[in-house]
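#structure-requests
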Amino acid sequence: MWRMFLILGLITAAPAVAESGITIGQGSAKLHLPMPDGYCTIDTERARESSLFERQAGLMLPRQKLLALAIDCGELQAFRDRHREFTRYLAFTSLLQDEKPVLVADPARAGYLADFAARSPHFDLKPAADPANKRPKPSDALVDARQMAVIDQDESAIYFGHVVVVKDVKTVDVVAVVTAIGGKAVSAEFRQPFGNDHSIEGLLDVARREAPALIAANIPAPPRVFEPDPPAVAEATTGLSLGTVFDGKIVDELTTRLGRGGLIAAALAACLMFFTFVFVLMTKSSR
């Protein structure tokens, strides 16, 4: 009995383990979501984590559908063991329009991102070249809770930034990656506690690594090429003489065409014909 309790205790205390990635079914297709270092996906088989997923999914509707939720591995373990709140997490979502997924084929990704970026507000995080040009601090420029601003863009994705303010206090850094994979527009939204006026730049570095990883994990496999079956081997012809059967070149050719077993069978048939012929001659001569 004590062994059973020990095993159950070990299972309960098993730490949250980071995965390399997870796969989400999307109808007949699948999306592969690589996991950044230090993040662990929640387990929706656990009641509290299932409720957490449903609550977060409800907050994102109607513009996004939650696909997966990952939390800093240490914070997820504390959430499970001591019911502590978590502050660093990542939400993977599918973008929606009229309650349906936004469909974007891989070849159309660049055009979709360019159009999306053109319709969005921008903020340049890079320092001004001219010291006299007093640019606002990133945290001051990204505090508008009503919208997120494009803070970077490359061939893989658009990166939106945002700083959440509660009662005039900066509380959370947010960076959202928007790209297209598997024929759908998706987002990976990172959140962390506000650190300082430039802490969002560190979160942006993490997002820049995630975007190409998402695309690489969902490159369609090349179509399989089905080759026709090789033509059937022609059957051995009749009328072979003993000389041709044991000629070296003919033997090599027959071995290639008939295989070793077929060649032996042909040789035995020729021998049988020879002995039958001899037997017939001897019978006639005896008469």
